[in-house]
Specification:
This protein is of the alpha+beta class and 122 residues long. 35% of the residues lie in helices and 11% in strands. The chain has one domain (4-120): Zn peptidases (Aminopeptidase). InterPro entries: Peptidase_M14 (IPR000834), Peptidase_M14_domain (IPR050753).
Length: 122
């Protein structure tokens, strides 16, 4: 897990594990939507999720191109974009994949304004 908004493409022509910016035809739209979400999230907007074991990982403006972060061949985000013309971003909302029930209210507070802003944009 992490705290970042990721956008297509997740796959790249070279299939290098990381570091390849894989630009889609709608790159600017995807960046706009990802920033709309990230800019309202108190952790995501810093670009420094500070996840255990990944403390040095950073994401400018709290967003990343999927393949630049890590290459995913055959992912749903790319499939939906290419074959269904469905624009989606992937939201990594927590360093922990399974947060405790007691942490869910805090997670809601962290994401409420981001979600509302994202809905307004789409």
């Amino acid at each position: 897990g992490s705290v970042v908004a990721s956008y297509p493409y997740d796959d790249s022509p070279t299939h290098r594990l990381t570091g390849v910016y894989s630009k889609s035809a709608d790159d600017e739209v995807f960046k706009y939507l990802a920033k709309a979400y990230a800019s309202h999230h108190p952790i995501m907007r810093t670009g420094k999720p500070n996840c255990p074991g990944e403390e040095r990982e950073t994401f400018p403006d709290g967003i990343t191109n999927g393949a630049q972060w890590y290459d995913v061949e055959g992912g749903m985000q790319d499939y939906n974009y290419v074959w269904a013309n469905c624009f989606e971003i992937t939201l990594e909302l927590s360093c922990c994949k399974y947060p405790l029930t007691s942490e869910l209210p805090k997670e809601w507070e962290n994401n409420r304004e981001s979600l509302l802003s994202f809905i307004e944009k789409v």
